[in-house]
Design brief:
The complex is a heterodimer of chains A (374) and B (434). By secondary structure, chain A is an alpha/beta fold. Classes of the chains: A alpha/beta (374), B alpha/beta (434).
Chain lengths: 374, 434
């Protein structure tokens, strides 16, 4: 079954290597306002950068200091170590940490005389007609730069072709997520996390095929029946299923999330207006729910968390805050009270990119599960 | 004699507002200075003017508008409202760690302790509702950093629940035409919002007057900055703190008066061959990040012990954009957009690191420091994440090694003045004066 690759969360560079072996370009992407559809329409493979399994980010720390988010500095570490052998990086200014990964990576690249392709787009933090128009202009410039870089003209037809493909993936991922609604789901949190992470490494066509095969075979999987509590996970970028395993080993099962490497990576559908294809892309990417880097969607984000928790019959939420991740770190101000009002128990934990506090997490998770199990 | 802490205690008990406390403290300082050092009274007048304006805003029939980050302050003033630059609160409280802690701790109930102390104090103050006069509106921006992007929207939600109108600017990292136009378009929308808030129409004449005052402020500030380029630098490092907060009051005569006086005194000292270093200027230091608000005594100590003066700090550094065509609204809005992007801290810290590197390079080019210190406020994590690029540039281009120390510019509990001094002393003794 070729879909087994969906369950290998390790960063795989095989697809990018094969792609580049054909003389085509592949770029790393950072953060969620870089539309993959545009990059693919320019004939380039987007590889969403992550730091899974990075246990030593000391060189990244030299550049970004200890006061930086370890997810971000681990990505820089991987970039410096050559884990990602790509033709450049395209980033959006998600929060300040990915921006600094981008800055440092570009600086180091130039210093080393490599001069690969680097481009950062500005993504507004407020959604309205004015900011949407600004974002469209940012994407237009991205297209110009990509066209020059790859030599491939980005046409509306190509954009629509990839919108259709990514939309198909969105539908399939949502179908996978639906499996988690069952009383005894056939996938747990680790499985789902791995499935999502796989999209970062493979061309969308291959990812779609794997998802289809998996969904076709899902009914044959043995359901998880031993769980004592249904959990939801929210918080900072989490690209390590091992983190979820620590909690699930204590009797919980993650059935929902609000993670950027989770269901929020593939929300809804990108509706295309044939008269304004780029505008449609901008609208989708700007309006979809992302993380608290946005300034005007807090209430919607909280509503999404609460509604999802109810929809997936969650017994409790684990809120993981990456140290030095201010965006998610500061989201408690009103969320805690709102969850209390909704009667949803909450466990807040701090974490690092590597599993530094696994023992402590296990103890706290066990206590939380005992408290909320029915 | 035991220190009189009645005012501090009242704030700690929640019985006195921050504004009342600051007014009382500044007036007390002024009274003491009248007796001991009347020649320096001018350095405090601006504080009295500002805090009393905050306190008496409602009494004087004006709307009190909180603002955070770079916003078009001149327009707020032109609408005859009182602009309250929220950063002045943590900066004013920072020399007293216990007092600052009250608000920091209140915020840390919800936010991580790694968040910037400036934003924690502002959020804590909002949660405890202890500023003083209730704001009539809150205007903020999406910069400078992730900490402010957490604090401001949360404050927005808290205030909105109370019925306080809020307006947010999305400030782009672009410094080009697209970025400027984006801010101009938002500012036009802001004017309509202010018209609705105040129930008055935008008055071009009033705005022109404010622009003139602001120009005066920044012309004098530019002259003071040029004065600092001289050798020896006649102005003390401590005065740099004003650069970071001058935007709060730039549209008022008091700010221009202060800077004019600062220039006059600096010029006089220069003519007399005097400066802040008792034995003459031996070294000139560039501070690569924020001012040491919570430990500003470090500046005095450096001057006294090492005859070393801080000539410029990267975050307070101003480009000083000037309105050139007052009366031409479109042109003024463009200048204002540039001002918003070139605000202290915003210019170097809020966008790509190349802006920060450029800014520091300019400081080294213009002020010719021979000592480089990255005394980094820990809350400013994204500048820590640019620091190596900046200090590598200084090393490669100017041959100067940089000192790194982590401090909390607002929360004095993080590191004591003595600890900071010890690190600086080691660097001065073993690297600079080896």
């Amino acid at each position: 079954m070729s879909y087994q690759k969906l369950f290998d969360s390790k960063i795989s560079t095989e697809a990018a290597k094969a792609w580049r072996a054909q003389g085509k370009k592949a770029v790393g992407t950072i953060c969620c306002h870089v539309p993959d559809e545009i990059i693919r329409a320019a004939g380039i493979l987007p590889v969403r950068m992550r730091a899974t399994d990075c246990v030593d980010s000391s060189s990244g720390e030299v550049w970004m200091s200890t006061f930086s988010c370890s997810f971000a500095r681990s990505i820089l570490q991987y970039w410096m170590d050559g884990v990602y052998d790509l033709d450049g990086i395209v980033a959006s200014d998600g929060c300040m940490m990915p921006s600094r990964v981008f800055d440092n990576a570009e600086y180091i690249d130039k210093k080393n005389g490599k001069n690969r392709f680097f481009y950062q787009i500005g993504a507004p933090r407020i959604v309205n007609d004015m900011t949407l128009s600004y974002y469209v202009d940012e994407l237009k410039e991205l297209i110009e730069r990509l066209e020059k870089f790859s030599g491939v003209k980005v046409t509306d037809e190509a954009l629509k072709e990839y919108i259709a493909k990514y939309n198909e993936a969105r539908v399939l991922v949502q179908q996978v997520a639906e499996l988690r609604k069952a009383d005894n789901p056939v996938i747990n949190g680790q499985d789902f996390s791995s499935i999502i992470l796989a999209y970062t490494d493979y061309p969308i066509e291959e990812y779609i095929e794997m998802l289809k095969e998996f969904l076709a075979d899902a009914k044959n999987r043995k359901p998880y029946t031993e769980q004592r509590a249904r959990l939801m996970i929210i918080g900072s970028a989490l690209d390590d299923p091992g983190y979820l395993k620590i909690v699930e080993d204590k009797g919980g099962i993650f059935v929902a999330d609000a993670l950027c490497f989770g269901t929020r990576a593939f929300p809804g559908q990108l509706e295309v207006d044939d008269k304004d294809v780029l505008g449609s892309i901008a609208k989708y990417y700007l309006e979809r729910l992302v993380c608290p880097r946005m300034m005007d969607d807090r209430a919607t984000l909280h509503e999404y968390i609460i509604n999802t928790a109810k929809e997936y019959k969650v017994d409790g939420i684990i809120y993981e805050k990456m140290q030095y991740c201010e965006c998610w770190g500061g989201e408690s101000v009103l969320l805690e009270d709102e969850l209390k009002e909704a009667g949803i128990p909450l466990l807040t934990v701090e974490r690092e990119e590597h599993l530094a506090n696994a023992g402590q997490l296990a103890i706290r998770a066990e206590a939380f599960i005992e408290m909320i199990e029915k | 004699m035991a220190k009189d802490t009645r005012l501090e205690d009242a704030v700690l008990r929640g019985e006195m507002s921050i504004v009342d406390f600051c007014c009382e403290k500044v007036n007390g300082q002024i009274e003491r200075m009248k007796e001991r050092n009347p020649d320096l009274l001018w350095t405090l007048e601006i504080q009295r003017a500002m805090w009393e304006m905050f306190r008496d805003g409602h009494k004087n029939g004006k709307k009190v508008i909180w603002f955070g980050g770079p916003v078009p302050v001149d327009l707020i003033v032109a609408f005859d409202c009182v602009p309250v630059y929220l950063d002045t609160v943590p900066i004013r409280l920072s020399p007293n760690p216990v007092l600052a802690a009250r608000f920091i701790d209140a915020a840390e109930k919800y936010v991580p302790n790694s968040m910037c102390g400036i934003d924690k104090v502002e959020l804590g103050m909002t949660l405890l509702n202890q500023f003083g006069p209730e704001p009539d509106a809150f205007v903020y921006s999406s910069v400078p950093c992730d900490s402010s992007r957490i604090a401001y929207p949360n404050m927005d939600m808290i205030l909105t629940k109370k019925g306080t109108p809020c307006f947010a600017f999305d400030t782009p990292f672009r410094r080009d035409e697209r970025g400027i136009q984006y801010l101009v378009d938002q500012t036009k929308r802001f004017i309509s919002w202010m018209e609705e808030l105040t129930g008055t129409k935008f008055d071009q004449e009033k705005y022109n007057e404010v622009c003139k005052k602001t120009n005066r402020t920044f012309e004098w500030q530019g002259k003071c900055a040029e004065l600092r380029m001289r050798k020896p630098c006649p102005l003390p490092g401590r005065m740099l703190v004003l650069n970071g907060t001058s935007n709060a009051m730039s549209g008022f005569d008091a700010m221009g008066d202060l800077l004019e006086k600062e220039y006059e005194v600096g010029e006089m000292l220069y003519e007399l061959g005097m400066g802040p270093c008792p034995e003459g200027e031996k070294h000139r230091v560039a501070l690569l990040q924020n001012m040491l608000w919570s430990s500003a005594g470090t500046m005095d100590w450096l001057e006294r012990e090492y005859n070393t003066v801080a000539v410029m700090d990267a975050f307070g550094f101003q480009y000083g954009d000037i309105y050139e065509h007052i009366g031409d609204l479109e042109d003024c809005l463009r200048v204002m957009a540039r001002k918003m992007q070139n605000n202290p801290m915003i210019h170097g810290a809020s966008g790509p690191s190349e802006n920060f590197i450029y800014l520091v390079d300019k400081i080294f080019e213009n002020y010719e420091p021979d000592v480089s210190m990255f005394i980094g406020h820990i809350g400013c994590k994204h500048t820590w994440a640019s620091a190596k690029m900046v200090t590598d540039m200084i090393q490669e281009k100017y041959g100067i090694p940089s000192l790194y120390i982590d401090v909390d510019g607002i929360d004095g509990r993080y590191k004591s003045l003595d600890e900071i001094k010890a690190s600086v002393a080691d660097y001065m003794d073993t690297v600079v004066n080896k």
